[in-house]
Amino acid sequence: MKFSNPVITTCALILSSVSSSYAFTCATTRGTPSSFALASTTDKVETTPPTTTSTAHSEGRFPLTPSFQSALDQEKNPDGSDITAQQAVKEMMGTLGFGMKFGLGEDKFVFTDVRHRALRGEETGGDERYEDEAFRNMLGSDVNTDFYAAGCNFFRPAMDMERSIIAGRDNLDKAMEQIKNGENVVFLANHQSEADPQVVSCLFEKAGEEYGQLAADITYVAGHKVTTDPLAVPFSMGRNLLCIHSKKHIDADPETKPAKSKQNMAAMNEMLQGLKEGGMAIWVAPSGGRDRRDIKSSKIPIASFDQKTVDMFRLMGNKSKKPTHFYPMAMVSYDLCPPPDFVDPGVGEQRNVRFTPVGIAVMDEVPNVGGAEKRHLFTHHAEFSCIRGYEDLLRGMGMEKYLP
Predict the structure, then answer these.
(1) What is the CA radius of gyration of the chain?
(2) Contact present, 351 and 64 (Cβ < 8 Å)
(3) What torsion, rounded to 10 degrees, do the Cα atoms 145, 151, 155, 159 define?
């Protein structure tokens, strides 16, 4: 791929929660860096990317530093056209602008429902929310924005699709057929980065248009961070979500535990209603959070599945009276947007997006059979299958260094 303009090699995002300001700084292969301000602020906008992570973190900023040179030389849009440097910058700036507007601004988007439906734009039709004048006024000039596509377009240039892998196509085909027949499918996945929903979308799109549509239809079980963190908000606006607090976060603050428990009960009721209707696809991380690297060895093991979480989804599936199928889904996406090494219940974590291959393996269905006395065997089977797929992906992608 040839470019008439300098190709972007480094990008830095600076977010100040105090001043509610963004700056997007791009260093090029020629000349001096140029700065693009997404909002007028009283603070001075830096014109050079942060040189170290520690400096950026100490100042409360969130660096975004993917290497786009090699990415843009080989990556494609879903329609097969080339991803240009100009397009990558435009998409990233646009999405970050959404964060400024809907994550921090006066029009901050509030997720009022525990089951959120993706905002795909008024022109898509069939969404009664766009008939509400207050809702339309809140979105303003973005009433036709497809937030699902915006999130995918933000991360796609950072995925090395040539080296990426989607395995278990036969199992995915079975799952799609079951959904078409009005049955439910739950993907029990390990969770590695905030971009996992976009990884699912981009890799499913790579497999084919029908798979890409499934990715758009999936409901993702998410915690409070994705609906309250300013940078996460615009990505979450474009996803079907069930907002559920994981056990590790619900116990972190005793004062808010009753309210969080009440919200979880409401979310369970919404999920049960969806399962009763049938044809529902759910993605959930039974670990309750992202996989963390071992800071001593730099290995990245899969976080253990929580048996109570798995039991709950099996119970909901049985209560729905609709056949519900469970497929372990192994994911490799850690390097795309690595999580902090330690769990922090608050929001505003550092982001560092990198150009890297990603991978998904849809494993064999785990039969939803057996009574309470054998429920631990179901969880063990699902987790072991996910680990096996994860390790196979790492080997296939040349990432053996992360093998536990």
Answers:
(1) 21
(2) yes
(3) -100
What is the arrangement of strands in the sheet containing 8-16, beginning at the earlier edge strand? Answer: 8-16, 21-28, 34-37
253-294 pLDDT, tens digit per residue, is: 788 888 888 888 999 999 999 999 999 999 999 998 899 999
Active site residues: 107
Highest mean pLDDT (candidates 19-33, 60-74, 302-316): 302-316
**Phi, psi dihedral angles at 357 (to 5 degrees):** -75, 155
Q: The tokens of 343 are what?
A: 């769990």
pTM recorded for the entire structure = 0.80
First vs last Cα of the chain: how many Å apart?
A: 38
Please state, as a whole number, how many other Cβ atoms lie within 10 Å of the Cβ of residue 260. 19
Cα distance between residue 307 and residue 12, in whole Å: 40
When the pLDDT of each residue in the chain is averaged and rounded to a whole number, the result is 79
| Cα separation values, 73 from 47, 99, 160, Å | 25, 28, 10
With H, G, I as helix, E, B as strand and everything else as coil, classify residue 182.
coil
Quote the tokens at residue 223. Answer: 């915690």
Of 293, 377, 275, 398, the residue nearest 340 (C-alpha): 293
